[in-house]
Design a protein that fits this description.
- The complex is a heterodimer of chains A (581) and B (246).
- Chain A is an all-alpha fold.
- Chain A has 3 domains: 232 residues, Up-down Bundle (Cytochrome C Oxidase, Chain A); 240 residues, Cytochrome C Oxidase, Chain A (Up-down Bundle); 58 residues, no CATH class.
- Helix content of chain A is 60%, strand content 2%.
- In chain A, helix 7 packs antiparallel against helix 8, helix 9 runs antiparallel to helix 10 and helix 15 packs antiparallel against helix 16.
- The radius of gyration of chain A is 24 Å and the shape is globular.
- The model of chain A has no long low-confidence stretch (mean pLDDT 94).
- Helix content of chain B is 61%, strand content 3%.
- Chain B has a single domain, classed as Cytochrome c oxidase, subunit III, four-helix bundle (Four Helix Bundle (Hemerythrin (Met), subunit A)), CATH 1.20.120.80.
- Chain B is built from 5 helices and 2 strands; from the N terminus they run H-E-E-H-H-H-H.
- Chain B starts with 40 loop residues before the first helix and ends with a helix.
- The radius of gyration of chain B is 23 Å and the shape is elongated.
- In chain B, helix 1 packs antiparallel against helix 4, helix 2 runs antiparallel to helix 5 and helix 3 packs antiparallel against helix 4.
- The chains are: A mainly alpha (581), B mainly alpha (246).
Chain lengths: 581, 246
């Protein structure tokens, strides 16, 4: 057994808490805060999934009263669409990979005792939770939740009288997102400062695990994007409540002038999508980092092209801010501007392709261990490619005119942004569960969960591409009244049945998660024989992560199958093995 | 008799951004509360400054975004339903002269807080040596720069409120014209941010009452000072935008 070198540890900023409330509720420990974020996202994902199930049921049985909602009117259906999208994007895809796993593992992976600002870290979680509560409260106020979509397009969202749910419900929706932005900014501040200033001795930037790179760049994206969303939200609230006209032009409702004039709905779209497109990468970059990590661990090979992977993450992050206009090709944009956005969007394919190529290069000739985290990591690559390949179609204005607002668009973004990220979360859950809870998850249940999810996902979203190409519009609540869509209803039925099966598969995960916490097999400190620092410490890690020491790093994060080494992996804190392999 | 100037400096920490990695700081040292629970003073200050630098980025983005909206909205025409023609609804607001006085107050407060920062930094630097009978912790007649900054900060906020009332008295309310909307928006958002600085000043002021160490007070004042300077620069930018880009 190799001995790990340790240095004196920086004093932990806070003592180990005593008592349930300080330890598990108002905790300053990044690990507990990570778990809090994780379970918040878990609660949110089941709310979001339930809403999607209601949508799917209504689409094929439009006259069937739904549980809790009764008869569904078109505007109620739009409410479901809005809240499903908002909850999933903000409180699941942004919360779990970054707030959950990032909080738990970033400090440990860089050899730090905690985040740079633990109190701020705690506040960021409680702020996010408050945002979630306010969002859910929108269901229960007069008029119900808003119907303007997760993109909140003005002028629909900018006036209180545009529909049911656009009163107090919409105000709560905006306030919730504003609160979420503040929480996310506090989190991003911590991630960046911690990564730059608290790395252990020897942990150079080019020795950081790709997970840390992904969390770090994601935090930068959040830092630049959430401030803009916050500003847009403030303007929207002013339009709604103070009578200003930032986003509302001269419009009438039921023949009556509204009092607004001169505002621009496109201004909202620009501000929103300046945030909205980087948000896609905020959701998926952490999953990319996690899957890079796992593919290397379970192929027993160094990640193929580490530096290229780092530059690709940076490239994706940078280009992510240059392409927001591709969401607005149909807004009357100048063809020259559209061309520029189109080229930039195509350009993102380059770093994305580099990453895909390197993932495949990592798998090639590896001694692959098909564990459940590895299955989900491979599933992520598959979904990323399948969802990504339809991106260049939508990036071309000429094709976008045909495909815009059809089912092709949700098919594309659900595969690449939604489910691919979710697969990253699942992969990370199965991989890090032993470290977090000291027990292994049940492997049989995990494999059932994988196949249900993998096949189910494709069964749901691949047919949606065909629906879109056939011209079926998004957001229609009833398909039976539209004659030219009748031929496509069987496909919609198939999607709904596939959704039933896939959601049933998620219950397997839920059972496995809680069963394994208490009944799972005891885990060793390094059950996957991995190399990064979290596997050098006890399971679960002590309050200060390394038991009063700080590891000294000598090696890269992916030293597997090293010639001359006594075993097929060399941990980061093992004695130096010479030049990087 | 040995004497030490209050302008003695603590070694400025550098933010490591390169590939060198950061050596793990050792326990204690630096501040006078370097016991278990806190890294040394220089590490804390460096980290806090880095955190502030990062924290100011979204604030900057917020105002960049407002500026973008300001420029776009200014150029938009609207339909006049009476004549059915496109007209401009952007009526430039004549800013109250009081805003210039407020600007002077804020700049002066920025100077004062800088003096406060240097003063308390010197005290923090000397604190470990004050056990020596011949070393003084500083000028016993020191000027209360921090309190003076606080007074000026509150004066600025009061001045902004008065300027709002003057605008309203002249018929410019939030929704009167898009330009007045932006005046209220930009000055209001800036004022809310400055209130955060005022709150930090209160915290710094009562830090000694709460038993905080000189090092902790020094860090709080250092951060507040840089934040305050940022707010002063931001205000000048906002004023220029409202005055010259309208």
């Amino acid at each position: 057994m190799a001995t790990h070198e340790f240095a004196a540890q920086e004093s932990h900023a806070h003592a180990a808490p005593q008592g349930f409330v300080r330890k598990w509720v108002f905790s300053l420990d990044h690990k507990v805060i990570g778990l809090q974020y994780y379970f918040l996202a878990l609660a949110a994902v089941f709310v979001g999934m339930f809403l999607s199930l209601l949508m799917r049921i209504h689409l094929i049985w439009p006259t069937l009263p739904l549980p809790l909602l009764g008869d569904i009117k078109p505007e109620t259906y739009l409410t479901l669409v809005t809240m499903h999208g908002t909850i999933m994007v903000f409180f699941v895809l942004t919360t779990a990979p970054q707030g959950g796993f990032g909080n738990y593992f970033l400090p440990i992976q860089i050899g730090a005792p905690d985040m740079a600002f633990p109190v701020l870290n705690m506040l960021s979680f409680w702020t996010t939770l408050l945002g979630f509560i306010v969002m859910i409260a929108a269901f229960f106020v007069a008029g119900g939740a808003p119907l303007h979509g997760w993109t909140g397009y003005a002028p629909l969202s900018a006036m209180q009288s545009t529909g049911p749910g656009e009163g107090l419900g919409a105000d709560l929706w905006i306030i919730s997102i504003a609160i979420f932005c503040i929480g996310a900014l506090m989190g991003a501040l911590n991630f960046i400062t911690t990564t730059l200033d608290m790395r252990a001795k020897g942990m150079t930037m080019m020795r950081l695990p790709l997970t840390v790179w992904a969390w770090f760049v994601t935090a930068i994206l959040g830092l630049l994007a959430f401030g803009v969303l916050l500003s847009a939200g403030i303007l929207l609230l002013m339009d709604r409540n103070l009578g200003t006209s930032f986003f509302v032009p001269l419009v009438t409702i039921n023949g009556q002038l509204t009092g607004h004039k001169g505002g621009s709905p496109l201004l909202w779209q620009h501000l929103f999508w300046f945030f909205g497109h980087p948000e896609v990468y905020i959701a998926i970059l952490p999953a990319m980092g996690m899957c890079s990590q796992l593919l290397s661990v379970f192929s027993r090979k160094p990640i193929f092209g580490y530096k290229a992977m780092v530059y690709a993450i940076l490239g994706i992050g940078f280009l992510g801010f240059m392409v927001w206009g591709h969401h607005m090709f149909m807004s009357g944009m100048s063809p020259y501007t559209a061309f520029a956005f189109s080229i930039m969007t195509m350009g993102i394919g380059v770093p994305s392709a580099i990453k895909t190529f390197n993932w495949l290069g990592t798998l090639m000739r590896g001694r692959i261990r098909f564990t459940s985290p590895m299955l989900f990591a491979i599933g992520f690559v598959s979904l990323f490619v399948s969802g990504g390949i339809s991106g260049p179609f939508l990036a071309q204005p000429v094709l976008d005119i045909q495909l815009h607002d059809t089912y092709f668009v949700p098919a594309h973004f659900h595969l690449i942004m939604g489910v691919a990220s979710i697969f990253g979360i699942f992969a990370a859950t199965y991989y890090w569960f032993p470290k977090m809870f000291g027990r292994m998850m049940n492997e049989s249940m995990a494999r059932w969960h994988f196949w249900f999810s993998f096949i189910g996902t494709y069964a749901i979203f691949m047919p949606m591409h065909y629906l879109g190409m056939a011209g079926m519009p998004r957001r229609y609540s009833q398909l039976t009244e539209v004659t030219y869509l009748h031929g496509l209803i069987p496909l919609q039925k198939f999607i709904t049945y596939a959704a039933f099966v896939t959601i049933a598969g998620q219950l397997i995960f839920l059972v496995n998660l809680f069963w394994s916490m208490f009944k799972g097999k005891q885990a060793s400190d390094n059950p996957w024989e991995a190399t990064t620092l979290e596997w050098t410490t006890a399971t679960p890690p002590p309050h200060d992560n390394f038991g009063g020491h700080t590891p000294v790093v000598h090696n890269g994060p992916y030293e597997y199958n090293v010639p001359g080494a006594p075993r097929d992996y060399v941990m980061q804190s093992d004695p130096e093995i010479g030049p990087a392999h | 008799m040995a004497s030490f100037s209050t302008t003695a400096t603590v070694e400025d920490p550098r933010i490591a951004l390169g590939d060198g990695g950061i050596l793990p700081p050792t326990r204690g040292g630096g501040g006078d509360d370097s016991g278990p629970g806190l890294p040394d003073y220089a590490t804390r200050l460096r980290r806090a400054r880095l955190g502030l630098l990062v924290a100011l980025t979204p604030v900057l983005m917020l105002f960049v975004s407002f500026t973008s909206a300001y420029i776009v909205r200014q150029g938009l025409p609207t339909l006049d339903p009476r004549t059915n023609t496109l007209v401009r609804d952007w009526i430039p607001v004549t800013l109250p002269k009081l805003l210039l006085i407020n600007t002077g107050v804020l700049i002066l407060s920025s100077v004062f807080i800088e003096l406060a920062r240097r003063q308390i930094k010197g005290q923090a630097a000397l604190r470990p040596n004050t056990a020596h009978p011949r070393v003084s912790a500083g000028d016993p007649m020191r000027i209360p720069w921090l309190s003076m900054t606080l007074v000026l900060g509150l004066t600025f906020l009061l001045g902004q409120w008065t300027a709002w009332r003057q605008l309203a008295a002249n018929g410019f309310y939030v929704a009167t014209t898009p330009s007045s909307s932006f005046v209220y928006l930009l000055t209001g958002t800036h004022a809310i941010h400055l209130m955060g600085g005022v709150l930090a000043l209160f915290v710094a002021g009562i830090a000694s009452l709460l038993g905080r160490s000189a090092a902790t007070r020094s860090i709080v004042v250092d951060l507040t000072a840089w934040y305050w300077h940022f707010m002063a620069a931001l205000w000048i930018y906002i004023l220029c935008l409202l005055e010259f880009a309208s």
